[in-house]
Design goal:
heterodimer, A: 392 residues, alpha/beta, Peroxisomal Thiolase, Chain A, domain 1, nine-stranded mixed sheet, two-stranded antiparallel ribbon, 13 helices, globular, B: 139 residues, mainly beta, five-stranded mixed beta barrel, four-stranded antiparallel sheet, 10 strands
Chain lengths: 392, 139
């Protein structure tokens, strides 16, 4: 295995851009990543692209082929990768593996998406054998309801209050007002959040991430190529992906087994633990974490499920400001999914771009002081998860 | 008025009362809802699957209230009234998703004892009652 450097990162802003095509967003992100890396399109030896059924990819998830057609068909190999909302992180894992294995020296990883309005539909096939379809038909359970279950349980176990949940949204917007690439940059008071519409009890509208359009790309390369371009590259210390265990308590269709232990997202915990192990870091080495906050709940649950803090401790960390960029455990100093919204396949890569800017000290008013090691995590439909550790 | 199940093979009214229809591994005992073809427990060497019935007793592990009208394929009678859904740990060791049967969604409590009932989900265009599995608090 050879060392892998992150030579370039590029993002389009997140938002709704009816005047732009998916190709426009993608080209912007890819061109920005190439410029940032100081390499030309013709130097890219392989493309790993996150893909979904929502947009682009010729309806077949061939998003990487769209990129190559648009940037110039050089004949490079294309890897199209589907993993639900984890796709960006999983595509990064493919790109990392292609370079780490020594197969290629310069690889582009890209994710871009224009999502239809409304909460993401987990199924669009009318097939009784599809349990995602059946949970909506027979139980009446759309996507956000799942987060409602997890959050209600946390309130039952730890006495988490609705105000504590709202505080997390307030905190996210305090950060995102400083991020020109975030979609929602207005500040909210606790009352603003608590007055927003109840969606899936106990979660309110401002506590759940909406869908967005967005695009992000990175250029990965070997140490030799990196040293020819820069004296201080950002290094990929680890990249791991995992799928869920059968008995983690999270129902995938209409049910599951009552778990022997604590109900948790086992795929995310496995990916994070594997990535931290690979990179040889402990929780004390982490300068910041970009985690998948589809809802405020995850800012409480994930740090505990990964051993970054004690069970039941997360609420007090938020209340003391410890998850702010200048706190003890900075979480989502980008503003997170709450302030970007979700452009499914691009999410894992916006996190990695944001971590890169932090590690280079380019994040301005939301900069984590002396950021040296950063962890990102995604979670997607089907029990997919990814984790990435970057360091400088 | 005819009652029709929302889908076949998921539940039944038996002589002993309402039951969910699932499977159980003959080797390791892992319960499944709905039915499965093979045991999915990676540490089980067996694989023979038997039909199993679950119910009526369970504990409400958690719940949520659906405040906005759900998008298709979910169906509901107009005018829309928010409903509660639960994750229920049944006595047989299976955790299931279900609608909660209650007159007041704000009175649902995590951790309460619940029992399986088969009730109307919505009225079909032909006037039939479409039935699904629900759980209600044991008084």
């Amino acid at each position: 295995m050879q060392e892998v450097a992150l030579l370039g990162a590029g993002m389009h802003a997140w938002g709704k851009f009816p005047e732009k095509t998916l190709g426009d967003l993608t080209r912007f992100a890819v061109s920005a990543a190439l410029d940032d890396a100081g390499v030309t399109w013709r130097e890219i030896q392989a493309v790993s692209a996150a893909s979904s059924r929502f947009s682009g990819g010729k309806g077949w998830g061939l998003n990487g082929n769209d990129v190559v057609e648009d940037m110039g068909p050089t004949g490079v190999p294309v890897y199209n990768l589907s993993a639900g909302c984890a796709a960006g992180g999983n595509a990064f894992n493919i790109g990392y593996t292609l370079v780490a294995s020594g197969m290629y020296d310069v690889v582009l990883v890209v994710g871009s998406e224009k999502l239809p309005k409304g909460f993401i539909q987990t199924s669009n096939v009318e097939d009784e054998a599809d349990l995602e379809y059946m949970r909506q038909l027979a139980v009446g359970m759309p996507g956000p309801a799942f987060w409602g279950f997890l959050t209600t349980r946390r309130m039952h176990e730890y006495g988490t209050t609705e105000a504590q949940l709202a505080k997390i949204a307030v905190k996210a917007h305090q950060i995102a007002k400083h991020n020109e690439r975030a979609r929602f940059r207005q500040e909210f008071t606790l009352e603003d959040v608590l007055n927003s519409a109840m969606v899936s009890y106990p979660l309110r509208l401002y506590e759940i991430c909406p869908v967005s359009d967005g695009a992000a790309a990175v250029v990965l390369c070997s140490a030799e190529v990196a040293r020819a371009h820069t004296t201080s590259p950002v290094w990929v210390a680890a990249s791991a992906i995992a799928t869920a265990l059968h008995n983690d308590g999270i129902p995938k269709g209409l049910g599951t087994v009552v778990p022997p232990g604590v109900t948790h997202h086992s795929e995310a915990a496995a990916a994070v633990k594997q990535a931290m192990g690979q990179s040889g870091i402990t929780k004390d080495d982490l300068s910041l974490v970009e985690l998948q906050d589809n809802t405020v709940y995850y800012e409480l649950a994930f740090p505990e499920e990964w051993g970054l803090c004690e069970p039941g401790e997360a609420e007090s960390l938020v209340e003391k400001g410890e998850t702010m960029p200048d706190g003890r455990l900075p979480i989502n100093p980008s503003g997170g999914f709450l302030c970007f919204g979700e452009a499914t396949t691009a999410q894992g890569l916006f996190q990695i771009c944001e971590m890169t800017y932090q590690l280079r000290g380019e994040s301005g008013a939301r900069q984590v002081p002396n950021a040296r090691v950063a962890l990102a995590q995604t979670l997607g439909l089907g029990g997919n998860a990814s984790a990435t550790v970057l360091k400088r | 008025m005819t009652q029709v199940p929302v889908a076949e093979g998921l539940f039944a009214e038996t002589a002993a009362g309402p039951r969910l229809l699932g499977s159980r591994c003959a080797t390791c005992g892992t319960p499944y809802f709905p039915k499965v073809a093979i045991c999915r427990n990676p540490s089980c060497a067996g694989g023979a699957i038997e039909d199993a019935e679950f119910g009526p007793n369970g504990t409400l592990w958690s719940y949520t209230i659906q405040y906005y009208p759900p998008p298709p394929p979910a169906k509901y009678d107009e005018p829309y009234v928010p409903y509660a859904m639960g994750m229920i740990d049944m006595a047989e060791g299976v955790r299931v998703l279900a609608r909660i049967s209650t007159d007041d969604v704000t009175k649902v409590v995590a951790g309460s004892a619940v029992e399986l009932v088969l009730e109307k989900l919505y009225t079909a265009p032909d006037g039939n009652d479409v039935i699904t599995w629900k759980f209600r608090e044991v008084k």
